[in-house]
Fold this sequence. Notes:
CATH superfamily of the largest domain: Metallo-dependent phosphatases
Number of helices: 13
CATH architecture of the largest domain: 4-Layer Sandwich
Order of helices and strands: HHHHHHEEHEHEHHEEEHEHEHEEE
CATH topology of the largest domain: Purple Acid Phosphatase, chain A, domain 2
Structural class: alpha/beta
Amino acid sequence: MFFIIFLTVxxxxxxxxxxxxxxxxxxxxxxxxxxxxxxxxxxxLPVLPIAFRYIGYESSLLDILSLIGxxxxxxFFLSFLLFISRDLVxxxxxxxxxxxxxxxxxxxxIDLEKRQFLQKSLSIGIxxxxxxxxxxxxxxxxxGPSIINQTIYLNDLPDSFENFTIAQISDLHVGPTIKKPYVxxxxxxxxxINPDLIAITGDLVDxxxxxxxxxxxxxxxxIAKYGTYFVTGNHEYYSGAEKWLEETDRMGFTNLVNExxxxxxxxxxxxxxxxxxxxxxxxxxxxxxxxxxxxxGSVDEKVKILLAHQPSSIFKANEAGYDFQISGHTHGGQFxxxxxxxxxANPYLSGLHDHNGTQIYVNSGTxxxxxxxxxxxxxxxxxxxxxKKAS
Length: 391
């Protein structure tokens, strides 16, 4: 059912763009057939690799097809938005003209005779704009993450943790289009900033261990004095969460599955807890997320930090008394206009916020998902510096 719906949506979107190109640019019949074939190919390309991976088949050829297909999907999606927006404006103008007085209506009608030329000019303009925009978005997505420095002020931070640093990696999505070279960029960035602790807040992978192990391996070389901690995201559950938890454990990460560790410096401690993905129970019932239980046995620590993939965990985190939640999942919307529905679907889209006394930071993603495009929402590794809030 998912594939049928997905293919139907893609077919409509690609078909609409093709139809506007045919009608506005007067493509002759010889080139029209070629254009139809290309549109059909780009409609299927994003779907076929998903279907093959669903039945357990993964290969470098599928990865290449995924990169081409997802890039094409970004191009067609942006084109579709602009074409349909233009057509709606024309429809609205036509509707308004039908209510105008006869003399005015006649003048408007005369002006609308220029519509064909205007539509052709706008179509050329749309395609001219979308091409470079897609190229820029592709470059922005593929060049690797930037370091975002964020100071976190905490009321009861122990003196020994003043200027303690935590590097956050989130939503790396190692899979069909993000491979070892990109992962090595992340490793290099982490090595440069040399954090005290590394937090990986889910959606690390999109695929099987057997196929992606080598691509992910550079992250096993990350070094932080107080360790590397990992919590699951929703995509781990699509890719076999229990097996991936075994692999991240082998890589030297500390998995926090509704549990916590105490980080100690000079006999002073803070609690670092981690929960499973907000909807993990839908796939593995025993993995139901529980911020309160993650703190079980930790009552004396003045500062409590939670690693939780989805910002939606903030409500239970606040009830449990956490001081700070570190999350991802949203990708910051990744590119316009997905910023709007993503913001609607999550309590927080990106950046630092205060939720009834519990601070929450939402990382915009260290990698990307789907179309390799980032427009106005750069990928990031966040470097938190903890400081005691002045009383």
